[in-house]
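step=encode ok
step=design start
structure_in=
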């Protein structure tokens, strides 16, 4: 728990530092307006957004892989907590957030899992948590998995519509290097939380280059920025 707490204190202080006048002594975390923010996709060929930015989250979690018969890993999902970093936009260090936080995330012992981070967020009702990212069966075709971003537990608790299931439109290698998972552009397959989703500034998340068919599934830690545009929230 020490590591979990410390990671959260760091994240909390990062968020608190940008709040000039905390509204309460317990430091609640307002969401800042990012509608004029620029989603920096420099170095990639991802398309420009068609809608204005609505949310920006720092994703901390794992990518899941299974070993295919070809001896290489195939991605089979992910689980991540999304922290609201809207008030850090434009502050020094914003561009390095995924790198900074990945140092702590990678140093955390194996006992600290995304599920534990999520449980911690629920227990302490952390107001700087936006929600969770995980995979669900494609709600349109009923087969295959699609990524979902679900803000019904935190940012819009009690509103069952505060989610988006994404459909991948564009997938490019991370310009930051081959150990970072791809940058993505998705649009909403279902849900009105957002019209577009970007996964950029990724750190980590890539599996080993090869595997022995039949070996266990693995999870690989990653951090990422998730930008959401449009939407009805
Ligand atoms: C991915 O792994 C996590 C454990 O980190 C697990 O909770 C989750 O269900 C897995 N998701 C999929 C789609 O395999
Ligand atoms: C690995 O993950 C795949 C896809 O989620 C699943 O079908 C399979 O049962 C898992 N394999 C093991 C060994 O857990
Ligand atoms: C996508 O999100 C928008 C909200 O901005 C909504 O109007 C639209 O119905 C959503 N599309 C689907 C297929 O759910």
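sequence_out=
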């Amino acid at each position: 728990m020490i590591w979990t707490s410390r990671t959260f204190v760091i994240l909390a202080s990062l968020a608190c530092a940008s709040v000039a006048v905390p509204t309460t002594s317990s430091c609640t975390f307002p969401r800042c307006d990012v509608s004029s923010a620029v989603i920096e996709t420099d170095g990639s060929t991802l398309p420009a957004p068609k809608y204005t930015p609505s949310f920006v989250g720092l994703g901390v979690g794992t990518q899941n892989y299974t070993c295919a018969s070809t001896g290489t890993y195939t991605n089979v999902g992910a689980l991540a907590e999304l922290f609201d970093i809207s008030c850090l936009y434009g502050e020094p260090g914003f561009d390095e957030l995924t790198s900074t936080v990945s140092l702590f995330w990678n140093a955390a012992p194996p006992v600290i899992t995304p599920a534990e981070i999520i449980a911690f967020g629920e227990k302490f009702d952390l107001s700087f948590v936006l929600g969770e990212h995980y995979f669900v069966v494609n709600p349109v075709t009923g087969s295959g998995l699609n990524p979902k971003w679900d803000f019904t537990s935190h940012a819009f608790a009690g509103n069952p519509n505060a989610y988006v299931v994404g459909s991948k439109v564009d997938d490019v290698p991370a310009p930051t290097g081959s150990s970072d998972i791809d940058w993505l552009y998705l649009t909403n397959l279902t849900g009105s939380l957002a019209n577009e989703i970007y996964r950029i500034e990724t750190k980590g998340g890539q599996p080993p280059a090869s595997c022995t068919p039949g070996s266990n599934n693995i999870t690989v830690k990653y951090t990422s920025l998730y930008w959401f545009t449009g939407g009805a929230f």
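step=design ok
step=annotate ok -> The pocket of 2-acetamido-2-deoxy-beta-D-glucopyranose (ligand 1) is lined by residues 62, 64, 76-77, 79, 113-115, 135, 145, 219 (CB under 6 Å).
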